[in-house]
Amino acid sequence: MDVSSKKAVVFGGTSGIGLATTRMLAAEGATVVTISRDPSKAGDLPSGVTVEACDVTDAAAVEALLNKLAPYDILVSAATGGARAVGPFLEMDMDGYKGSFAKLWGYAHVVRFGAKHVTDGGSITLVSGAPARNCRPGQIAISSVGGAVEAMARAVAKEVAPRIRINVVSPGTIDTPMVALQGEERTTAYTNMTKNNLVPRAGTAEEVAEGLMFVIKNDFVTGTTVDVDGGWLIA
Ligand SMILES: NC(=O)c1ccc[n+]([C@@H]2O[C@H](COP(=O)([O-])OP(=O)(O)OC[C@H]3O[C@@H](n4cnc5c(N)ncnc54)[C@H](OP(=O)(O)O)[C@@H]3O)[C@@H](O)[C@H]2O)c1
Q: Domain coordinates of the chain in residue numbers?
């Protein structure tokens, strides 16, 4: 797909990976509607980008917005959805574990209410995370959610084929506002998180957005997950 003059809708598009994807789509000539609970956090956006406020966990709000914006050629969700539980599974607060699935429910809403409005030849792209297939200590919640996201996309790909495509991009540790630490503390945290990876540094939101652009543009890619993780999976 040549994205120029196409219409894109990006949930979670006001920060980090979603924002980088929004900017890349706009730079290639797409019209982009970028969405989050507080879109003001996106700051100045290039021409061709407009913002909407919506919480992906609110099914009725997602449905209404996707109906209003229809039709679109490119549908993306990178929205984190909510907080994640961290720590050993056997000691984990079960409400926290269940709550971590807000990301999956958000993606499910976007896919269920958006797929029918994606134009023929268009695509849906979601974002999982490297723990889905190589869980490190304490990451059972994000591993479970990421695995579910990837399984959902593989399953939905069969339902929507051959009219549209759906894919997932799986990032490793990426330097985005998702981590609130600042200064020295932030640098140390990223160094420790990535020191055993094959590429021992945090990735950038732009490096992951390049992965999203690949699956959006390549008409021969569907039902798959593209890893942009600095070698996390085999480290
Ligand atoms: N950064 C990493 O190291 C990493 C690693 C693996 C996977 N990922 C995944 O990559 C995706 C993007 O993460 P990121 O690092 O770019 O995070 P980020 O910078 O925190 O951006 C998250 C975006 O999602 C939006 N969002 C969160 N909850 C939402 C909700 N309930 N409804 C609507 N929008 C919501 C946020 O805006 P509002 O707060 O205004 O709603 C923001 O635009 C996430 O799915 C994350 O799990 C990230």
A: 7-229
Among 114, 133, 132, CA closest to 124: 114
Ligand 1 pocket residue status of 57, Cβ below 6 Å: yes
Pocket test for ligand 1, best of 178, 181, 201 (most atoms within 8 A of CB): 178
Residues contacting residue 22 through CB under 8 Å, at least 6 positions apart: 8, 10, 13, 14, 32, 34, 42, 45, 49
> Ligand 1 center to residue 17 CA distance, Å?
7
Topology of the domain comprising 7-229 = Rossmann fold (3.40.50)
Give the number of C-alpha atoms closer than 13 A to the C-alpha of residue 50, restricted to the C-beta side: 6
Q: Is ligand 1 within 6 A of the CB of residue 36?
A: yes
Q: Are 67 and 113 in contact (CB under 8 A)?
A: yes
Stated pTM of the model: 0.98
pLDDT digits (tens, 9 = 90+) for 78-121: 999 999 999 999 999 999 999 999 999 999 999 999 999 999 99
